[in-house]
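Thread: Newbie trying to understand structure tokens

Hi all, I'm a second-year student working on a class project, and my supervisor (Dr. K.) asked me to get a predicted structure for one chain before our next meeting. I've only ever worked with sequences, so writing a 3D structure as a token string is new to me. If someone could post the tokens and maybe explain what I'm looking at, I'd be very grateful. Here's the chain:
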Amino acid sequence: MDATDEDVDFVIVGSGAGGGPLAARLALDGFRVLVLEAGDDHACPYYSVPIMQAYASEDPAMRWDFFVRHWGADEIQSRDPKFVPERDGVLYPRGSTVGGSTAVSAMVTMYPPAGDWRRLAELTGDPSWGPEAMRGLVRRLEAWRGADAQPLPGLDEADREQLAGHGRSGWLGTTRAAPSLAGREPRFLDIIGAIEQTARTMFDIPQEVSLPRDINAQDTPDDFQGMTFVPVAVRDGRRNGSRERLQEVARQHPDRLTIRTGCLVTRVVLEGTTAVGVEYLVGRRAYRAAPAGSACAAGAATGPADPGGAARTARARREVILAGGTFNTPQLLMLSGLGPASELAGLGIEPVRDLPGVGANLHDRYEVSVVGELAEDYPIFAGAALDVPADGEPADDLYTQWRDDADGPYTTNGSLAAIVARSGVAGPESDLVVFALPIDFRGYYPGYAKDAVREHDRLSIVVLKAHTTNRAGTVRLRTTDPRDVPAIDFRYFEEGSGDAAADLRGVVDGIGIARSILSRVPGVRRELVPGDEVTDKDALASFVREQSWGHHACGTARIGRADDPLAVVDGDFRVHGIDRLRVVDASVFPDIPGLFIASAVYLISEKAADVIAAAHPKG
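---
Reply by user tm_fold:
Sure, no problem. This is what the structure looks like when written as tokens:
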């Protein structure tokens, strides 16, 4: 055991959207922090080039391979073309490098609406969860560099900036695709025009109101409906996020912040009901979600997996903080004796605290794609590999423009524009986002990234249904070996809880919007998915039930009051009944916030830093 292991204030498990910003903020506040990351410290062009985000999620040096069940019933699960029988599930990409899943995400940065924060403030009785306080954290983390939406009629640029309320000096560089990029490709202009026409027609938006609008503007209402640009976590043409935040603070304060990779935490060390540290294995890619393969497609060697040697212990003078994410945090809690007592005892784990909510309440959004085939290829893709050049091979013009000038289409995540809308089953907030990608995207399965760009005449209109009602999913231990991946079962639609019929109708409503957009794009030859022949509501419902997916899992260690038997943590992220142990990641949300989850996790990371620093005053 080295000296650092015994001489830190906080041990933080995980370096993603929850753990990374929190560790950085605590180190800046003067605390000594140790971050334990099970993955490697790996980066390559797939990480850095925004347009390569799908390749990043399939890079064996940066990913965990989780395979999840959408349905318990084999008969319906097997109808999904994304289902991999030999893995008994559907691929659910997660990151395994410094930065966690923010290293392999699509970088979409849409903040949750005020209503989500208002409900958390009511649940906890804590106004610091309220929308005004959380908006202050947006301004603290954000470094907005995008082209703002045009002012509404009667306002000027100064009014627009004040009402938008963006942060300009935070650590998270955020932007949008430069409007000039669309002008380089006539077909992109056609698609963007079709989105605008659909929005104006559906929502009766007059011409004097400029589109697209800014979904992240402070004055955008929770029930906004219309066309928006897609904000992304890109700074100077490159992905940025938790990784850059951690590395910058570690450079500034190497005596305070230590980031240790290849460290698989196996349990929380408890003395009675007090967390005093963690045990971990040192070994490259010891977790069995690590994929087979010796090199990423961009040429960087990963090396063989190492099962890890003898367990080591890292002790925390003040607190242990779990930020392993929605799948790994409940696994670690249960391995530590914190979870459903009867299940733990059945596996031979001595229960320390009966917390039935650990691993319960798993839920996600539902997503599908409408994929069209165009009559002609996109001219901008002529001669483009749409990939990182192999060693010794010349780079295409688009890659060269990104590399040399931090400019061009490769500086975006590929999203052209979006419509935000309320389905026929929406509550008070808009629950649909429908966005266009000039590729063939049908969800996640091994090899999806290459398949998406194989043809240059495809257009995908992706439908994401937020504010779903199903909370019946679970994460459960398969074995007591911490290297084994847990069983992850979402229990879609009627296998789950809530109003399955309403969730299904909401997704079908989104398909209607997607088809309306596609019908306005000139030169569409045919619809490939779900297909021109899939027209009646029953057929559309079957398509949604069989082929939808999600990638924003949350809820498996949810916030709740002490008298709630399924609550795992309180409003200050403290695990109920356990001293000096907190959880700060997507698992704490009782209900999935907003439209995309990464920004919400960044915000709770910033909030947790304030809460924890206040609980441990220095001086």
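A couple of things are worth pointing out once you decode it. DSSP finds 18 helices and 24 strands in the chain. The two ends are 29 Å apart (CA to CA). Feel free to ask follow-ups in this thread.
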